[in-house]
Amino acid sequence: MAGKYYDELRIGQVIKHEVGRTLAEYDNILFSTLTMNPSPLHINADYMSKSEYGKPLMNGIFTLGVLVGITVHDLTAGTIIANLGYESVRHPKPMFAGDTLYVETEVMEKRESKSRPDTGVIKLKHLGRNQAGEICVEAIRSVLFLKKPTA
Length: 151
Hints:
By secondary structure, the chain is of the alpha+beta class.
């Protein structure tokens, strides 16, 4: 199993995910249209050429999805039951087509589940940085993890 079990994570632990993902114009247009978001912020280069940014912004929900996706192999593949919720999501700087997203995760809190003795709840903070090291997206989420099976 690539993911970590509840028992293998400790409060304060930081995981720097090695995989980065370059975000493409195609990703942005496809995601925005698939999710019924026709905002010119994401899909109209002419409109955005006249804006303060000069080019389309990457869709924030797409960026959030990539942020979480980058963490799966190192953290949750096969070891979680479910995401329980997102406490906060912030986008302090925009991302654009051609930017690369890198992620690190901090274990903020953990507690054993009261109703499911083979699981525990962990609160994670994900920070997503662009290729210049600037934080562009951050999220705090709670996840229901499996405990390590006893043999």
